[in-house]
Amino acid sequence: NAGVMQNPRHLVRRRGQEARLRCSPMKGHSHVYWYRQLPEEGLKFMVYLQKENIIDESGMPKERFSAEFPKEGPSILRIQQVVRGDSAAYFCASSPGVGYGYTFGSGTRLTVV
Amino acid sequence: AQTVTQSQPEMSVQEAETVTLSCTYDTSENNYYLFWYKQPPSRQMILVIRQEAYKQQNATENRFSVNFQKAAKSFSLKISDSQLGDTAMYFCAFIKTQGGSEKLVFGKGMKLTVNP
Q1: Under a CB-based contact definition with an 8 Å cutoff, are residues B27 and B93 in contact?
Q2: What is the mean pLDDT of residues B11-31?
Q3: What pLDDT band is residue B2 in, cutting at 50, 70 and 90?
Q4: Within a 13 Å sphere around the CA of B31, how many CA atoms are in the beta-carbon half?
Q5: Most buried pick, A17, A30, A67, B50, via CB within 10 A?
Q6: In whole angstroms, what is the distance from residue B38 CA to residue B24 CA?
Q7: What is the C-alpha separation between A82 and B35, in angstroms, rounded?
Q8: b/e for A5-25, b at 16 or more Cβ within 10 A?
Q9: SS3 per residue for chain A
Q10: Is B28 part of the contact surface with chain A (CB cutoff 8 Å)?
Q11: Are B107 and A42 spatial neighbours (Cβ–Cβ below 8 Å)?
């Protein structure tokens, strides 16, 4: 079991470009979560998805950010027209169900220049 | 509101000693789950230990154990026989459920340094 796979590990984008972050959950896990971590801070919840459904996007900025978890393929976190304030580490986690604890990927460090 | 508070931003301990990391939380729910995660310099988030609130027995995982005080809403982590590899950020977390959704809510973390 390869665990939660995130790619790319590092991503550099210029202001105004789009960033696409990918996450493949652990085999058998149908719940996917995205978190953002700013330097010297804890992880902040962004969105919770199950296959083809967004369950909770209360932590997502209203504009420029979107997430999906299609029937086939990885979950995608998409940031349009990136700004410097989007620079952070973005973590994906998966779980088999409620209360099991999450398995995290290694994160994608996004740098906007 | 459901929050997690880690009041100690930083601690250091000598190798082989025991250290306790504190965490308090706030919830109106009766059944919930609590976790400690470790984040070493590699940045990987690693689950250390998990506690179910309806279980009175404190969880243990090898050198890691918790002191779960439900009435006081306290969930401290004890690391015995500290090793250099324990140096990391430690995050206390709580599963919040609301309206069919659930998510982990993290404290701000505590930096632990184990010195040789």
Answers
A1: no
A2: 93
A3: low
A4: 4
A5: A67
A6: 17
A7: 33
A8: ebeeeebebeeeeebebbbbb
A9: CCCCEEECCEEEECCCCCEEEEEECCCCCCEEEEEEECCCCCEEEEEEEECCEEEECCCCCCCCEEEECCCCCCEEEEECCCCHHHCEEEEEEEECCCCCCCEECCCEEEEEC
A10: no
A11: yes
In this prediction, residue A40 has a pLDDT band, given cuts at 50, 70 and 90, of: confident
> Which of B4, B43, B75, B94 has the most A C-beta neighbours within 10 Å, making it the best mutation to test the interface with A?
B43
Q: Give the strand pairing for B3-5 and A75-79.
A: unpaired
Tokens of A104: 């995290």
- C-alpha angle with apex A104: A66 to A24, nearest 5 degrees? 55
pLDDT in tens, B36-46: 999 998 889 99
Cβ–Cβ contact B43 with A under 8 A: yes
CB contact under 8 A, A33 and B107: no
Tell which of A10, A26, A37, A60 to mutate to test the B interface (max B CBs under 10 Å). Answer: A37
Q: Is A101 on the interface with B (CB under 8 A)?
A: yes
